[in-house]
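FAQ: What does the model actually see?

It sees only this:
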Amino acid sequence: MARKISYERQTLESHNPAKRFAHQARLRRAADLAEEYLPKNGTLLDFGAGPGKFLNDVRQKRPDVQARGYDKFMTPRFDGIEYVASLEALPSGSIDVMTAFEVMEHLTDEGVETLLTEARRLLTGAGCLIVSVPIVYGPITLVKEASQMVAFRRRLDYSVPELCRVVFGLPIARPMDPAQCREGYLKTHKGFDFRQLRSTIAEAFTIERELLSPFRGVSWIFNSQIFFVARPRRRQ
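And it is asked to produce this:
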């Protein structure tokens, strides 16, 4: 029977040293990027904020920043961070930096479009969206899948033909059955393609930077996450 493991134990506190290293590097990169793009006394909104560790890390370096979070399933565990009930309640043009780390891979296509629409509305004229998502194509998938099977004591999530396609970077379908979906959020990374997300973001945003994590200067095939820094295109 599959077992449940806390988010922290799956990521930053994982018993797997490679996984722990990758997620800790990702969190540092996320905080550094937010700090770089936030203006003095700026406003930061983190979509899918979880327990708020990322927001707290930013606040430790930048106490001038107003840190807000949004998460449908978790509440903050740190002081000085406000969680909003909905994005719709926030005024237009009120956010300097909006982030979405390790969350867009869990959204349906409709959820991604909604998030990007809200980001365009909420960001200031000079504001930016910073996103990170996992890379679940290429040989790294074999390592990730093996780790998940051991950690959760479950069977292989891919058929053999699917796994072969994924290892060679060829797309496979995402599972959309009700068992894999909770209030519009997908439980699995299976089939998520950062390359498709890049194309979707580029339809309404200008992607200024792409950064790979945890290793710089090598192909995405050897990395576990990718970051996008994007600014909304001006409406004609």
